[in-house]
């Protein structure tokens, strides 16, 4: 008796034949077809993401329960005269359909959790100071598991409900990046299923070409099945400080000073505009009294620049931490009286965006369009960037809706052999325009993003997009710059039939 899966997979094979005009593959030999789903719930989930801008409908969604399932699917695709695309979907927090697979198959990575039964996909080595973590694991779970051993990863993202495989495919950046490098700089080893369906263990010394290709590789070379993440002793608490500026050059000088001295654990920054709420949804920080003080200042200056810095501490250093924060603030020129401090647990600080997420969800404001633009801007052009983008476009047009992140980081901890790209300067700034729109105005916000990109292009500011999205091959070549040839060569080596992560729209889809 034919099962639902059989019926659907025959349909699937039929559609594939039709659309590709291909010699049929023998789907009967695909044992994993029982784990393919075609129902509206599975397809609906796989054809949307956090961006709510792109909608690419796959033929089917694989719910794997082991890495063998994924290996079999990819090998099968390779054997087809015209292969179908396969895209890993972590937590679906891409904003431009990078996790989708039009007419192909999406692999729901979270379903790999099924294989662990009562255990988890996170194994901590206290002796080695590392954790072996499934690519499908969320960073919040990595944090909770490692803390049980008094350890934690050193490099984070601002938000922890992202998968390890998803962030390692980009870079994984936050306020610790200047000190420890991005998350991709804190990986010792990986198991990867390549676009040919080969299961390979790789590290700096073993299959290093694959190792560096996958880190920041936008899912183009393989699916990360396991990553070995560097751990260090976890602190217990943090002193979390925000300082305000109205002068951009003093703000950036102080930010750069802070990332050049010893002792700081985290540095970010934000742009505050007189037409947006003072506390953005990501991490409410100020008291109502502080807010009214800041509001008067904003009325006067139009834009304020905010440095956010953190010092970790634990029981042994608790009596020294205030002095240490004072030492870090020596010589800083923030507006007198506009330095604010909070004391939080390390976990609450790292997980600071979660509360904002839950609040937005409860108001129906989470699943809305997110036309984000994230840029890496070279330090040498930062004054031009402020005049042309922050003051002239963002502040004059008064359109932005959502957090505006702006902080410097260092290039030294980014290994140039990795696929991730940065500007060609020792220090560059990270700009995050984290817009939340609605279904009628998001295009307006996106037009502004394009205006920003066009201004930088005209001004010759050689920036790189983070979480990039481009429509033309020329733009991708420009994004990768001197790394483009290597990127192409690695694609030919590890995914010659161009099966993986078509949603990135880098190579022609098959
Ligand atoms: C609220 C929010 C806050 C964020 N904050 C930060 C931040 O502070 N710092 C930062 O760096 N980023 C941040 N991001 C961006 C985030 O890191 C990326 O969108 C990341 O890709 C999301 O992970 P995911 O698991 O949802 O990946 P998905 O969106 O599911 O996938 C992203 C890409 O990776 C590929 N992929 C997924 N899993 C694997 C795997 N196991 N192996 C190989 N390829 C895979 C997919 O095919 C796709 O191309 C944030 C995103 C959101 C929505």
UniProtKB/TrEMBL annotation:
<keyword id="KW-0274">FAD</keyword>
<comment type="similarity">
    <text>Belongs to the oxygen-dependent FAD-linked oxidoreductase family.</text>
</comment>
<dbReference type="GO" id="GO:0019139">
    <property type="term" value="F:cytokinin dehydrogenase activity"/>
</dbReference>
<dbReference type="InterPro" id="IPR016169">
    <property type="entry name" value="FAD-bd_PCMH_sub2"/>
</dbReference>
<dbReference type="InterPro" id="IPR036318">
    <property type="entry name" value="FAD-bd_PCMH-like_sf"/>
</dbReference>
<protein>
    <recommendedName>
        <fullName>cytokinin dehydrogenase</fullName>
        <ecNumber>1.5.99.12</ecNumber>
    </recommendedName>
</protein>
<keyword id="KW-0285">Flavoprotein</keyword>
<dbReference type="GO" id="GO:0071949">
    <property type="term" value="F:FAD binding"/>
</dbReference>
<dbReference type="InterPro" id="IPR006094">
    <property type="entry name" value="Oxid_FAD_bind_N"/>
</dbReference>
<dbReference type="InterPro" id="IPR016167">
    <property type="entry name" value="FAD-bd_PCMH_sub1"/>
</dbReference>
<keyword id="KW-0560">Oxidoreductase</keyword>
<dbReference type="InterPro" id="IPR016164">
    <property type="entry name" value="FAD-linked_Oxase-like_C"/>
</dbReference>
<keyword id="KW-0732">Signal</keyword>
<dbReference type="InterPro" id="IPR016166">
    <property type="entry name" value="FAD-bd_PCMH"/>
</dbReference>
<dbReference type="InterPro" id="IPR016170">
    <property type="entry name" value="Cytok_DH_C_sf"/>
</dbReference>
<dbReference type="InterPro" id="IPR050432">
    <property type="entry name" value="FAD-linked_Oxidoreductases_BP"/>
</dbReference>
<dbReference type="InterPro" id="IPR015345">
    <property type="entry name" value="Cytokinin_DH_FAD/cytokin-bd"/>
</dbReference>
<dbReference type="Pfam" id="PF09265">
    <property type="entry name" value="Cytokin-bind"/>
</dbReference>
<feature type="domain" description="FAD-binding PCMH-type">
    <location>
        <begin position="54"/>
        <end position="234"/>
    </location>
</feature>
<dbReference type="Pfam" id="PF01565">
    <property type="entry name" value="FAD_binding_4"/>
</dbReference>
<dbReference type="GO" id="GO:0009690">
    <property type="term" value="P:cytokinin metabolic process"/>
</dbReference>
